Amino acid sequence: MTGRSKDTRAKPYSSNWMDSCYQETLLPGAPWHTLSSEICEALADYLHRQMTQPQRAFILARILGDAFMVRYFPDTLAEMTSNPPDISAEEQKKLTMEASTWLKAQLLKAAKKVGAVADDELISEDMKTFRTHTSDIFYSGLERELYHQEQQTIDEMKQEAIQRKNRASPEALRQSALGTVSATRQAASPAMSVTRSSSASTIRSVKTDRLKEIMYNLDVVPQHPAMTSKSIDLIAESVVKLLERSPGRFKVVAKRLHGRLLPRSLRTYIWTECLYQSEKDRLVRGANVERILRERFGKTVARNVGELRIKRATQSPIHRIIENSTLELYGTVPALATYRNQSMMKDAVKALNILYTYDRTYEPYLILWLFPLQLAFSSNAVTSGAEYVYELAMYLDILNSSLFTQWSNVHAVSDMVIHLLLINDKEFHDHLMSICQLNVQFKTKDFLLEQVQKERQEALKMLKKPPEQESSDPQQLLADPRMYIRKWIGEGFVSVLDTTSVMFVWDQLFLQGWDSTVLQDFTLVIMLLLRDRFLVCNDHMSMRQVFLDEPCKLLLMDIQTAWLKLHQNVSYPDLAACNRVRPTASPLQTSVTTPLPS
Fold first, then answer.
1. The pTM is what?
2. Three-point CA angle 301, 305, 307, nearest 5°
3. What domains, with CATH codes, occur in the chain?
4. Tens digits of per-residue pLDDT, 278-300?
5. Model confidence over 144-166: pLDDT tens digits?
6. How many Cα atoms sit within 13 Å of 272 on the Cβ side?
7. Whose C-alpha in 106, 218, 305, 405 is 20 to 30 A from the C-alpha of 177?
8. Calculated CA dihedral for residues 358, 359, 365, 366, nearest 10 degrees
């Protein structure tokens, strides 16, 4: 095919080991050549009629290349070479686009005819041989690359051990002591220069900062083993390379990743694709979605900076409110507290200020929504520089406006969860409803009661149920378990789960396009895993404590197992057994410090 450089054909994946595997499949005698010949012959059969039209034949010949034409249509090629048709440049461009689209359809038709389409149930023996051969080459290449990485890691560990040993040697300690004495004498000398004083001060500052970093782990982002394994990252990067080469395989890969925690590089790619995909339907087909969204967002922010009469977008009129809310949440929410460092909080504050400058949007729960995005796109902080916080703000805007379900639907989901519990686990349902109105303590001013009632009526309409009569007693409405479910969903589970579990939940949401069914199923999974703890509750306050404090204690593996079993139609009481951390006594002491749902 024309228009592709030789280097691109030889190294299509820009990865040494993957490109080596690709080239190995093209060696003489490889099964691909047999399969390729069969596809080409079937394609040639569909092209005979087109080759009788001079202009069409000329365009097809340029696309297919001389090798194909010499083998299947030598006379047509000779005719085109001696007497090329007179076609203007503009007409050539138009005909080339039409011919390319038509040719792709015919190529797929030819591949299906010879049984060479991987997704079809009926594939030929030659296709099976080719797939087995390619799979063997790929896995052998992957094992070699993993071995090389392992050896590299071992060598690095050996070098590090040697350096530690050298630092701890008697000679090194003696030299360090002599250096400290010399620095002390110089500090005591009245003739010491300003330069030396500055240098010594810098050294002491560096040592102090290093000590603080070791003691308090300040400004160091914790690394989770599931996110940093070199072997997992290598496989993830390979999948990303394949998807970049064949974007049409995205749905297949997403289906295979169901129920899995995504590695960092694969997460970044999949989340980005899902965010942009949600905007593609609103744009002209074939448009560069990323470029259009970035330009639109940047221009709007720049214009609004002038309208708001502020110096920069990262310091909006409500920047103090955003700063205080961010500090509070990073100090109280378990998932965020793990990453409580200056860099994370600064980026969050800047991004939220930019979003407010963009369209005057701000709610405290957006701090929670932004947190998973910060973790997923943390690698962009180095490559994007100052634009990183603008990217975060843009992604958060897309999530808020295009992906996250409507708030009325959040109420509908909470109603459906309670309804499913009634059908499938009546004991659990009846217990929750019997204790939720006992010993209720809350401040009604902390809740947007009118908004809650309005959204509840809209949810009932969505579920095709008759509207309820608005309760004159706010206690009855706000004490309902649905309010806590609404809090879970509305905050993306970030406020109640630990960091790794949050990322797992969000991985599944992005893999399935933020379908509200995923939110519903995860709510059921978490509630059922906490079933034993709920059953020992005896009033509203103890139930509230389980809703707000217990989910973060669940193990990721238990959530994964229950999530998969839920889709295998395992009974609800049996799903509770997936929780390996069982209550040994009543956990029901009312905590006045636990934040109320909002």
1. 0.77
2. 115
3. 6-130 (no CATH), 278-403 (no CATH), 407-576 (1.10.472)
4. 888 777 676 788 889 999 999 99
5. 998 888 888 888 888 888 888 88
6. 22
7. 218
8. -30
